[in-house]
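Q: Can I see a sequence and its folded structure?
A: Here is a first one.
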Amino acid sequence: MTLQEFFAMGGYGFYVWTSYGITLLVLVVNILIPIIQRKQFLRQQALKQKR
């Protein structure tokens, strides 16, 4: 089995690797969005405390 055959996966490689890519993207977004929202929330709370 060559590396090219591994990535081709019997002709279904495009679908398999696309689904892996989409899954990875969703996982990364699920990690980053709460971090960004927390920073925004803390920034808003700091501004409220200054008033």
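Q: Show me another, different protein.
A: A second, unrelated one:
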Amino acid sequence: MAGESENVVRNMPIDLYYVPGSAPCRAVLLTAKALNLNLNLKLVDLHHGEHLKPEYIKINPQHTVPTLVDDGFAIWESRAIITYLVNKYGKGSNLYPEEPKARALVDQRLYFDIGTIYQRFADYFYPQLFGGAPADKDKLAKIEDALNLLNTFLEGQKYSAGPNLTVADLSLIASVSSFEASDIDFKKYSNVKRWYETVKSTAPGYQEANEKGLDAFKGLVASMMKK
């Protein structure tokens, strides 16, 4: 009966409001693939302000993407979404281990991603992309520092938080892969390069969940940089 009940829950629609090129959105798509979850994808047109409409703000007052709605429960911030999905649909999975120390390490890597790797990338690259600002060498140096830290974390480790693929890797690779659209050479860091290729080849559904969106992001960058 437990198995039947779980299948009923799994078959209920899980809505994901997303933008294909967004790294945080791609992290959610990667996690869903790893859990074999089908998401009901709802494209949000940021350019035309769909995220600012009253019906969207009612779901998510911060009007950000991605936003997940699971049986009436709304949650946003990608790292909160991916840990929620594993907690609900992947009990016992290595993706988000339940052992306190192992989980703490995954959490640390997730916080490192949102507060350091992705934040520094956004600080450096988005003013160039969306505001036409010149590259800032000091901000670039902070990204290099962050990549050096990631390289250190990966010393002697197959994945970012130990021997198994976790949501930390899925979140981090969504962020780091976005660097490909910029002038940041993350592959000069040997451990980062090795880890990157490992996750690309072992994360379930990587091409569909991340590469397609990354191509969309690269296309956006190419068009914006021409202006």
